[in-house]
Amino acid sequence: MTYAWLIVNPAAGAGKTARKWPHIMARLQSLDLRFDYALTEAPGHARELAKDAVAKGYELVVSVGGDGTINEVVNGLYDTGSLADVLLGIIGTGTGGDYIRTIGIPRAHLEACQCLKNPRKVAVDLGVIEYLSGGETVRRLFVNFAGVGFDAEIVRTTTSKYKTLNATASYLAGLLSSLLFYKNKAVTLLIDGEVSEEKVCAVLLSNGKYGGGGMFAAPEADISDGLLDVLVIGDLSKPDLLWSLPRVYRGTHLTHPKVTLKKAREIEIRSDDSVFLQADGELLGGLPARCYVLPSLLNVVL
Questions:
Q1: Selected residue with higher pLDDT from 120 and 179
Q2: Could you name the CATH architecture of 126-296?
Q3: Residue 65, CB half-sphere, CA atoms under 13 Å: how many?
Q4: If pLDDT is split at 50, 70 and 90, which confidence band does 30 have?
Q5: Which CATH number fits domain 4-119: 3.40.50.10330, 3.40.50.2000, 3.40.50.10490, 1.10.240.10?
Q6: DSSP β-ladder status, 202-206 and 145-149
Q7: N or C: which end of the chain has fewer CB within 10 A?
Q8: Is the CB of residue 99 less than 8 Å from the CB of residue 167?
Q9: pLDDT, tens only, 222-265
Q10: Which of 97, 98, 104 lies closest to 124 in space, CA to CA?
Q11: What is the 3-state secondary structure (H, E, C) of the chain?
């Protein structure tokens, strides 16, 4: 059996992972899975622990936490240059669980442990986003989705004020709070070489189907097609945005006249306005940003 290294984020899921971890550990031991583990101590620590796992020769690295934890682990594995040689396991204990919802790993954490017993490998795509932070260009991988504009503003507000609520409640609280002050942004989009200038509420770059704690944001997305689903939400008024929100949970928003969807390998976004940027629910920097796909680079066990 593969010797596994588990990276556990006790703060994930509004601190509930710390309470779940003893039960997860007992379940893994009952499955006779040989493993070591480490608890993260601060944001960014999971990335460093993933690098340590590769240096120590672990073949299976398991993220125990939410989408943000998965993001850090994958970025750490990528930093080593050995991402394609390592298997990623996921035990989802976070607030949203959007990525595992797409990929098919059980949301029940004790059931997800079973996936590690007899791992079946599937190769999936990753997104890369290059953006400005502190005046420098930074590169960050994302597994599920990135967002620009109103979407990132919600992440900023939710993270700072409402993270202790459940997935749907925290997202809706962040949305309503952001709605009071947010103004749509004028952006320039370069999608696989095609240029457009428009005023947008948000631009979503999706690898997976779900985001924002269960929103069916990209119903046509495929994590293994070598493409990102680029969802451009145009110059919606605030009443229209609120009225249309339930459609996003049902995945029927693509028929809205101010919503467009394109599939692309490379996207650039620029703006003269101050525009926030998020990836996998983590607030990053700002525009300009460039995003592209790394096809079938990540090996996930189901």
A1: 120
A2: Sandwich (2.60)
A3: 30
A4: very high
A5: 3.40.50.10330
A6: antiparallel
A7: N
A8: no
A9: 999 999 999 999 999 988 988 888 888 888 898 899 999 999 99
A10: 104
A11: CCCEEEEECCCCCCCHHHHHHHHHHHHHHHCCCCEEEEECCCCCHHHHHHHHHHHCCCCEEEEEECHHHHHHHHHHHHHCCCHHHCEEEEEECCCCCHHHHHHCCCCCHHHHHHCCCCCCEEEEEEEEEEEEECCEEEEEEECCEEEEEHHHHHHHHHHHHHCCCCHHHHHHHHHHHHHCCCCCEEEEEEECCEEEEEEECEEEEECCCCECCCECCCCCCCCCCCCEEEEEECCCCHHHHHHHHHHHHHCCHHHCCCEEEEEECEEEEECCCCCEEEECCEEEEEEEEEEEEEEEEEEEEC
pLDDT, mean of residues 56-66? 95
pLDDT tens string 35-51: 999 999 999 999 999 99
For residue 4, list its beta bridge partners.
Answer: 35, 60
For CATH 2.60.200.40, list the domain ranges present in the chain.
126-296
**How much of the chain exceeds pLDDT 70, in percent?**
94
Average pLDDT over residues 124-147: 93
Give dist(CA 43, CA 36) in Å, integer. Answer: 21
Return the pLDDT at 162: 61
CA distance linking residue 155 with residue 3, whole number of Å: 36
Confidence of residue 2 (pLDDT cuts 50, 70, 90): low
What per-residue confidence (pLDDT) applies to 166?
58
Q: Are 135 and 261 in contact (CB under 8 A)?
A: no
Give the amino acid at 146.
Answer: A
